From TrEMBL:
SUPFAM superfamilies: NAD(P)-binding Rossmann-fold domains
Superkingdom of source: Bacteria
PANTHER family recorded: 3-OXO-DELTA(4,5)-STEROID 5-BETA-REDUCTASE (PTHR32487:SF0)
CDD domains found in the cross-reference section: 5beta-POR_like_SDR_a
Gene3D superfamilies recorded: NAD(P)-binding Rossmann-like Domain
Full protein name: Nucleoside-diphosphate-sugar epimerase
The PRISE-like Rossmann-fold domain, residue ranges: 65-355
Pfam families, A to Z: PRISE
């Protein structure tokens, strides 16, 4: 029996990579987004607004997915508004599918803010969770839209009888354009600007991140993990961390990334050097670079999300993630992080997104 997937947020970094893998493994795959991507071969686009129930009802009228993968979120000005909006988006999609009786499993992608707290909290001194981060850690006593999203999944599962999985990646590295959290492409664009203008490649993060151990999540590993958990009996109704499986220090990797682009690396000095501030005046510079090398995207903000890279790298704590739970249940996919970055950069060049 063919499996039918609905990828919610199919235009994002996680959703687009997941859709490609599902299709390669023979799934009938629908991709829901406000503006669906057309370039993924055999992906069936579904245009809908998650905040508009009538839009969802109409768009999903003839679609009966067996598996739903929720990979999207919307950034708002406050965490209270994040909770309201992002919880509502999950509720609306699951309500729209409720009467069909087709859904067997729902997978929700959140992240390490589950342990670190929301944007306003996790980059500041005073709240330092124990590392490595483990699924057994209790919820933090702070407002957090990830908890609201989880609770909507739990409530709908109790109502409709489907199984669920929660996936908590660290920083996701992979190809996409126009994504709100895209460190890999942001660093590639920043390094390209440094190369073109003769500027140094300055580390934007904290001393703790520079010197401590860290990990990241390749979008392809996350895709494999989502499919594994949604089709493996023992993994159902569980929350999981998901990272590449290795650890690294930015103090080494930063120099490696600089060497790839042929730029001069500058490590941590005496304070955090905001990448958002460093790139604040680079929109015109990028447009000139794009025109010079005939790149496909001239708008810097469509490729670079420096604000989020600042938040990720500015934490006053090393961030390592424990993967023991998934390993014990049989998920054995591993990815070398250095290769993750190089393969992304090579792909961005092949796609004519960087020169």
């Amino acid at each position: 029996m063919i499996k039918i997937a609905l990828v919610v947020g199919a235009s994002g970094i996680t959703g687009s990579n997941l859709a490609e893998k599902l299709i390669s493994e023979g799934w009938e795959t629908y991709g829901l987004a406000r503006t669906p991507k057309e370039e993924i071969k055999d992906l069936k686009p579904v245009a809908a607004d998650l905040l508009n129930p009538e839009s969802l009802e109409l768009a999903l009228a003839d679609i009966k997915p067996s598996h739903v993968f929720i990979t999207t979120w919307m950034r708002n000005d406050t965490e209270a508004e994040n909770i309201r909006v992002n919880g509502l988006m999950v509720r609306n999609i699951l309500d729209a599918l409720s009467g069909k009786g087709s859904v067997e499993h729902v997978a929700l992608v959140t992240g390490l803010k589950h342990y670190l707290g929301p944007f306003e909290a996790y980059a500041k001194e005073g709240f330092l969770p124990e590392t490595p981060l483990r699924e057994e850690h209790p919820r933090v006593d702070l407002e957090n839209f990830y908890y609201a999203q989880e609770d909507e999944v739990y409530a709908a599962a109790a109502r409709d009888g489907f199984t669920w999985s929660i996936h908590r990646p660290h920083t996701v590295i992979g190809k996409t354009v126009g994504n709100a959290m895209n460190m890999g492409t942001t660093l590639a664009v920043y390094a390209t600007i440094c190369k073109e203008t003769g500027r140094p490649f300055i580390w934007p993060g904290s001393a703790a991140q520079w010197n401590g151990l860290s990990d990241v999540t390749d979008a392809r590993v996350l895709a494999a993990h989502l499919i594994w958990a949604s089709t493996t009996e023992v993994a159902r109704n569980q929350a999981f961390n998901v990272v590449n499986g290795d650890v690294f220090r930015w103090s080494r990797l930063w120099n490696k990334l600089a060497a790839y682009f042929g730029v001069e690396p500058v490590g941590y000095g005496t304070s955090i050097q905001s990448l958002e501030k460093e790139m604040a005046g680079d929109a015109d510079t990028w447009k000139q670079i794009a025109q010079k090398y005939e790149l496909k995207e001239e708008v810097l903000s469509r490729l670079s999300t420096a604000w989020h890279t600042d938040l990720d790298l500015g934490r006053p704590i090393e961030v390592m993630t424990d993967m023991s739970k998934s390993r014990k249940m049989g998920f054995t996919v591993f990815q070398d992080t250095e290769e993750t970055f190089y393969e992304l950069f090579d792909e961005l060049r092949a796609m004519k997104l960087i020169p």
